[in-house]
Amino acid sequence: MKLLWGQRNLEKVQAHKLEPSEVESAFDADDWATAASEKPYRIVGEGTSHTSRLIRVIFAETDDGLYPITAFPIHRRQRRTP
User: Fold this and answer.
1) Given Cys at both, which of 8, 13, 23, 78 links 74, Cβ 3.0 to 4.6 Å?
2) Is residue 30 assigned to a domain?
């Protein structure tokens, strides 16, 4: 599935010292997993990026692809997904 990038979500991701390529690689990671979010229409995903950082991504699924709302690095003990 295609990730959708715009100025707003790029700024949010970069504010957390991540690049879009790092978020995209987490989506493709073998350990990528998702869980329902507390907010409607949002999904929480977690996976290890090509830089070996564990990343949590909050995203929404649209007809055109997946829109990463934000993403940030987390520690393994903070992982929500199985």
Assistant:
1) 78
2) yes
